[in-house]
Amino acid sequence: MVDSDDPVAELRSRAAALGMSVSAYLLSEQADGGPKPPIAETLRKAAKDGRREDVTTDEIVDIIRLGRESR
Question: What are the pLDDT digits (tens) for 28-48?
Answer without folding.
Answer: 888 777 667 778 887 788 777
